[in-house]
Design goal:
Number of helices: 6
Strand content: 5-15%
Radius of gyration: 34 Å
Oligomer: single chain
Order of helices and strands: HHHHHEEH
Structural class: mainly alpha
Strand order of the largest sheet: 1-2
Length: about 190
C-alpha cells in the first residue's frame, strides 16, 4: 500500500512536470491574475541557488580562458627544440674555442656561421587560417580579431593542391601507383 501511495505521488509530480513545455502558454482571454502567476511560475524551478549558478558560470569562464591543449603542447615542443638547439650550439662553441691551434679570426668566423645556421631570433610569421564561406567567393572579409597573415581555406582548395602535387610528381616521373583491377579489367569501386 505504501509503495502504491508513493507511486501515485510520483505520477502526480510527473504529470505536473510534463505541463512545462513550449505549448503550455500563449492562450488568449485569460484572467490577469492567471497571466501574472504564469509569468512567475511557467519556468521549472531548478533545485540550485543563485550562488551555485554563479559559481558554475565562473568555472565555465575559467575553462574557456585556458589555452587549448594542442596549442600548449605545440608551444612546449617548439620551446624544447629551441633549447636543444641552443645546448648543441653552446657545446660546439666550447669545442671551437678550446681548440687552440686555429686562428682567433677563424674561430669567430666559424661561430658566426653556426649562429647563422641556427638563428633562433628569426620568428616564423603566424598565419591565421579561416574557413572560407562559399557565398562570398573570392571577396572574403578579413576577420577583425586576426593578426598577421590571413589565409582562407576550404576542402576544395585542399583537393586542388593535392591534385597539383600529383600532377607535378607525374611530370617529374615519380613513383607510379599500381591500380588494382578486378578480373574484368575495371577499377574496383571505392567503399
Amino acid at each position: 500500500k505504501q509503495w502504491y501511495q508513493r507511486r501515485v505521488r510520483e505520477r502526480k509530480n510527473e504529470i505536473m512536470d510534463a505541463g512545462y513545455h513550449r505549448w503550455a502558454w500563449g492562450e488568449e482571454d485569460l484572467p490577469d491574475w492567471f497571466v501574472d502567476e504564469e509569468k512567475k511560475y511557467y519556468q521549472k524551478s531548478l533545485p540550485v541557488t543563485k550562488e551555485q549558478v554563479a559559481e558554475y558560470k565562473q568555472q565555465i569562464k575559467e575553462i574557456n580562458a585556458r589555452p587549448i591543449k594542442k596549442i600548449a603542447e605545440a608551444k612546449a615542443k617548439a620551446k624544447y627544440k629551441a633549447m636543444k638547439k641552443l645546448k648543441k650550439l653552446s657545446e660546439q662553441a666550447d669545442l671551437i674555442t678550446d681548440n687552440s691551434n686555429g686562428a682567433q679570426a677563424e674561430q669567430i668566423h666559424k661561430l658566426k656561421q653556426m649562429v647563422k645556421k641556427v638563428d633562433l631570433s628569426k620568428k616564423k610569421k603566424e598565419t591565421t587560417y579561416v574557413k572560407a564561406k562559399r557565398a562570398h567567393g573570392k571577396n572574403q572579409k578579413r576577420p577583425p580579431d586576426a593578426k598577421g597573415r590571413v589565409k582562407f581555406v576550404d576542402s576544395r582548395m585542399k583537393k586542388d593542391t593535392d591534385g597539383m602535387k600529383r600532377a607535378a610528381a607525374k611530370k617529374k616521373g615519380g613513383p607510379k601507383k599500381k591500380v588494382a583491377r578486378n578480373r574484368v579489367g575495371h577499377k574496383p569501386r571505392s567503399r
